[in-house]
Write a structure and sequence with these properties.
282 residues, alpha+beta, Phosphorylase Kinase, domain 1, Transferase(Phosphotransferase), domain 1, 2 domains, three-stranded antiparallel β-sheet, 17% strand
Length: 282
C-alpha cells in the first residue's frame, strides 16, 4: 500500500489536534506517532485501510478497540484520549490518541530471571487490569509481553486490546483468536472459545516465564504438537523448575495454569481477590 506518510501525519495531526508529531514505530498496517495532545505527552495510532471488504473490517475493529479502551476504567490499562477518527473519504486510515507511557514493553524485561517480588507486582497489576476488562465482559485474548508495558515506577500496564472480544458482542470478532505463539491458553486452539479464564492462563505463562525463562508449554515443537500439548497435558509446577519460591506464589502460578478453565481463577476479579487475601496473610 503506497502511502504519503508526511501528508498522512499532517492529516492525522489536524484531525486529532495532535502536536509535534514524529514517527515512533511502523509495521504492517499500523503507524505510531509520538507528540502531544493539549500539551501533554501522547501517542497517535494510525491504522491503514485497504480498499474493499477487508478495509471495512479493519475500520470496524479499530473503532471497537477505541470503544473498549474508552470503557475500561483502570490505571493498569492504557487510557485512550480521543475517539477514533477516519481519514479520507472514503477512509484510507483511522486514527486515535492514547496516553504515552514511559518505560518499555515487557519483552525488554524478560532477558533474565525475575525475583519473587517482581512477579508478585506483575500479578497484582495485571489482575487489576484484567478485572477491569472482565467486569465489562471483555476478554483481552493476547496477554503477551508486547502488550504489557513496564513503566518507570515499576508498575505494569495492559495495552492494545485490539484482539479483544466482548462476550456479548461476538458478531465482529467471533470466538476463535489465535493469540501469540507461546502465550496462548488451551482455549486458543482452533475450536476453542477464549474466556476470562484464558487471560488468567496467559498471565500464568508470563509469571512462569519471568521466573524460569522457560515456557510452560514449548511453542517450538510445531503447531500441531503445541496445540495438542495445550489441550491434553497439564503443565509442570513452577516449583519443579525454580527452587526457593514461596508456597503461596507456587500455588498462584500453578492455579493460573490449570489445563481446565474451571480449575483456574475464573477471571481477573477472582485472581485479584486471592492475591489481596494472600498479601494480607503475609
Amino acid at each position: 500500500m503506497n502511502v504519503d506518510v508526511t501528508q498522512l501525519i499532517d492529516d492525522v495531526s489536524a484531525a486529532l489536534g495532535f502536536e509535534e508529531a514524529q514517527p515512533l514505530t511502523q509495521g504492517g498496517q499500523k503507524i505510531v506517532l509520538q507528540g502531544k495532545l493539549s500539551g501533554a505527552p501522547a501517542v497517535a495510532k494510525i491504522v491503514l485501510l485497504a480498499p474493499g471488504p477487508n478495509g471495512d473490517i479493519t475500520l470496524q475493529r479499530a473503532h471497537r478497540e477505541v470503544e473498549l479502551l474508552s470503557a475500561v476504567d483502570s490505571n493498569r490499562v492504557v487510557k485512550v484520549l480521543t475517539d477514533a477518527v477516519e481519514i479520507g473519504d472514503p477512509p484510507t486510515a483511522v486514527c486515535w490518541a492514547e496516553e504515552r507511557l514511559d518505560g518499555a514493553d515487557l519483552a525488554a524485561s524478560l532477558t533474565g530471571a525475575w525475583d519473587e517480588a517482581e512477579v508478585w507486582s506483575l500479578l497484582h497489576d495485571m489482575a487489576e487490569a484484567l478485572a477491569a476488562c472482565h467486569d465489562l465482559e471483555v476478554v483481552h485474548r493476547d496477554l503477551s509481553p508486547g502488550n504489557v508495558r513496564r513503566t518507570d515506577d515499576g508498575h505494569f500496564v495492559l495495552m492494545d486490546p485490539g484482539l479483544a472480544r466482548h462476550l456479548a458482542k461476538t458478531a465482529l470478532t467471533g470466538a476463535f483468536q489465535p493469540g501469540t505463539q507461546g502465550w496462548r491458553s488451551p482455549e486458543h486452539v482452533p475450536g476453542g472459545d477464549p474466556m476470562p479464564a484464558s487471560d488468567v492462563f496467559a498471565l500464568g505463562i508470563l509469571g512462569f516465564f519471568a521466573l524460569s525463562r522457560t515456557f510452560p508449554v514449548d511453542p517450538s515443537v510445531g503447531q500441531e504438537a503445541y496445540d495438542r500439548a495445550l489441550v491434553e497435558e497439564q503443565v509442570p509446577s513452577i516449583a519443579s523448575l525454580v527452587t526457593g519460591l514461596s508456597p503461596e506464589l507456587v500455588e498462584v502460578i500453578d492455579t493460573c495454569l490449570r489445563r481446565q478453565p474451571a480449575r483456574r481463577y475464573l477471571d481477573g476479579a477472582e485472581l485479584k481477590s486471592e492475591l489481596n487475601r494472600l498479601e494480607g496473610a503475609r
